[in-house]
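Below is a filled-in request sheet from our internal design queue. Each sheet records the structural input a requester submitted and the sequence that came back. We keep these sheets so that new team members can see what a complete request looks like end to end.

REQUESTER: design group, bay 2
PRIORITY: normal
MODE: inverse folding
CHAIN LENGTH: 118
BACKBONE (tokenized):
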């Protein structure tokens, strides 16, 4: 599986494998002054993708692992300037083709059909 970044315009970009993401998160959790990046990692979203990229670039020289640097660069290139989320690409079944819908899309709750009682 992979980790993707979704942007407000509905576009989604693959940024890491699960292992690479885990290594990146483990490294980034030690950063003291990166609130946008911390929000993305802790809550799954950040209000300002540009701030996420800037915080990565400001801390990148401290990353001594090639996988961490690679994920950080992919993330910084993918986030854009508006709100961003990270996702594993799985989304609710919306009956459409196999393309994951935008993580910003709101899905109405559907009432499930009742199974017949025996």
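RETURNED SEQUENCE:
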């Amino acid at each position: 599986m992979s980790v993707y970044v979704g942007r407000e315009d509905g576009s989604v970009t693959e940024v890491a494998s699960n292992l690479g993401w885990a290594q990146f998160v483990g490294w980034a959790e030690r950063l003291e002054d990166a609130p946008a990046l911390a929000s993305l990692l802790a809550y799954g979203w950040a209000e300002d993708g540009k701030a996420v990229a800037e915080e990565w670039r400001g801390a990148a020289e401290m990353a001594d692992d090639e996988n961490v640097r690679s994920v950080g660069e992919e993330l910084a290139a993918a986030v854009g300037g508006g709100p961003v989320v990270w996702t594993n690409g799985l989304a609710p079944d919306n009956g459409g083709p196999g393309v994951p819908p935008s993580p910003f899309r709101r899905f109405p709750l559907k009432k499930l059909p009742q199974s017949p009682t025996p």
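SHEET NOTES:
- The longest strand covers residues 2-7.
- Helices lie at 18-28, 35-43, 49-59, 66-78.
FILED BY: M.R.
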